[in-house]
Amino acid sequence: MKRIIAKQEFCMGCGLCEVYCTVQHSKTKDIVKAYNSENPKPVSRIRVEMNKPVSFAIQCRHCEDAPCVTACLSGAMRKDEETGLVTHDPEKCMGCWTCIMVCPYGAIKIDVDGKVVAKCDQCAGLDVPACVANCPNGALVCKEVKP
Amino acid sequence: MSKYVIVGASAAGIGAVEAIREVDPVGTITVISEEQCPQYSRPMISDLVSGKADFHKMMCREDKFWENNQVQALTGRTALHLDLTDKFVALDKGDHINYEKLLIATGGRPFVPKIEGSDKDGVFTFTTVSDAEHLAAKLETAKTAVVIGAGLIGISVTEALVKRGIKVTLVELQDKILSLLLDAKGSDIVENVIKKAGVNIVTGQSVQRITGKPENDQVVGGVVLTKGEQMTCDAVIVAIGVVPRTELVTGTTVKTNRGIIVDNTMRTNVPDVYASGDVAEAYDFVLDQNRLLPLWPLAVLEGKVAGYNMAGKKTDYEGGTNMSALKYFGVPIVSIGIANPKDDAAYETLVMHEPERNLYKKLVLKDNVIVGMTLVNDIQKAGILFHLMKNRVNVKKIKQQLLNEDFGIATLPHSLRKKVYPGEID
């Protein structure tokens, strides 16, 4: 499976990963429209953490024994046996926030409509996730790891 | 003969099946459930009543969950008694199923106190899909309801009723709603939001008597409160709590307290007999003792631990605590561990309260370790705080940052970050 690893020493805290994550998960996939005309604006599923001089970006780690999957009340959060990804089905999500309570990384957010959660899906359909592809300093890398 | 027999097919039973199959792909599994279609999410029954979810959406596992895991699912069946010597479960139609490993995951039953008139048509409990369907049917004609008990289930059903346009009175014996979960300030915030939704809240009282309709005394027509006040209503929902369904082990050598007593592998005092979920007294890592904690996520986790051990993979339960995420009436809340420390001298509390934003955050610390948290309207970092809490991390150096909006993993000093989040950030 693929994992996105944050390289702390290269992160400048510019926040472009958040911007491109937002765009990738927008309806229009257009940076101007996503920020200016999409209402509500989609949430970024990656978060830049800053505690100067330290900064790094973090998103769902797709944990092996994922607490969110065990805790999920509705069965919306699942571990995909083939890809190793933790997937979230917004159609099944009941918006109970139990996954937010147990995620050790704080990587699950309440989505814009306030009804379901949103989290990293490693940009389903893209070869390289948007945050990795658009990091200007190589602070996010996508590595194949053993599940 | 079935290698594994599981009595109860809700959260703990489902968790156990998944764990067993991870370790043992072939051993025969038999699950006994009183319900016809057991793999649904009980916490979602309020969404069924409100109309937000249909039955299919409530399925918390795939439709063919039992088939896919090669489980013989005996649905609509009741386990009547156990024979621990000859190792079998006796079922309702007279048949026996022998087991090598047994899991008792019978859950809890709603507690209904003796109230005069509680046998009338229109009195409901609210834990199963069948309860929800009965209540939903009543709502075709009902206009007003009284909910007894302002805990998780009571408030959940209240919200569903409000969404259906029902005028609700919520009656709570304690002085505050959600008193087992929140402190006074947290409780007040929720109370105000619920009142704004048009709910009448009565605290410090209970229902003394349920009365009939003038034209038909067998049908609920109203209630009389402890202090004598009368009110009319078309339905009464009793949501006081659940009691463990231990009746299966009554008269056997399986030890019980209020629930079935288990060790940290979820095994009872009898070899090859395990218990998990609402029926069991499992470990609370905050209180450092075993207790009843009837919560869905913990039941799944306990079921998983039992399943691993039954299948031969030695696994210890890390423990849970009183913990819930709430979404009622649009206010996100996370509450974990101790909300109201009794002995103030031993505890330190950190509080952030911004009434204009309805923001309230409180941490309870003991010896610089987080032992309780209440987060209202800003729950984003709840999981990070919970991670520190579960790992009993000394937070002395970062105390002042814990409640800040920009608190995060980066707040942790480098050495601590490496220890608590090994291998994650290069």
The low-pLDDT segments of chain A are none
Strand residue percentage of chain A: 15-25%
Fourth-level CATH superfamily of the largest domain in chain B: FAD/NAD(P)-binding domain
Biggest beta sheet attributes of chain B: 7 strands, mixed
CATH architecture of the largest domain in chain B: 3-Layer(bba) Sandwich
Compute the number of helices of chain B. 9
Extended strand count of chain A: 8
* pLDDT averaged over residues of chain B: 96
Assign the CATH class of the largest domain in chain A. Answer: Alpha Beta
CATH architecture of the largest domain in chain A: 2-Layer Sandwich
Compute the number of structural domains of chain A.
2
Number of helices of chain A: 5
Mean pLDDT of chain A: 94
Describe, in plain words, how this protein is organized in 3D.
The complex is a heterodimer of chains A (147) and B (426). In chain A, 20% of the residues lie in helices and 20% in strands. Chain A folds into 2 domains: 1-59 and 120-147, Alpha-Beta Plaits (2-Layer Sandwich), CATH 3.30.70.20; 63-117, Alpha-Beta Plaits. In chain A, the strands form 4 sheets. Chain A has a two-stranded antiparallel sheet. Chain A contains 5 helices and 8 strands. With 147 residues, chain A is of the alpha+beta class. With 426 residues, chain B is an alpha/beta fold. Chain B has 3 domains: 2-109 and 243-310, 3-Layer(bba) Sandwich (FAD/NAD(P)-binding domain), CATH 3.50.50; 112-238, FAD/NAD(P)-binding domain; 332-420, FAD/NAD-linked reductase, C-terminal dimerisation domain (Enolase-like, domain 1, 2-Layer Sandwich), CATH 3.30.390. Helix content of chain B is 21%, strand content 29%. Chain B has 9 helices and 25 strands. In chain B, strands 1, 2, 3, 4, 5, 6 and 18 form a 7-stranded mixed β-sheet that branches. A 5-stranded parallel β-sheet of chain B has the order 8-15-9-10-11, covered by helices on one side. Chain B has a 5-stranded antiparallel β-sheet with strand order 21-22-25-24-23. The longest helix of chain B is centred in the C-terminal third of the chain and has 15 residues, at 296-310. Chain B starts with a strand and ends in a 6-residue tail after the last helix. Classes of the chains: A alpha+beta (147), B alpha/beta (426). The interface between A and B is large, with 40 and 44 residues.
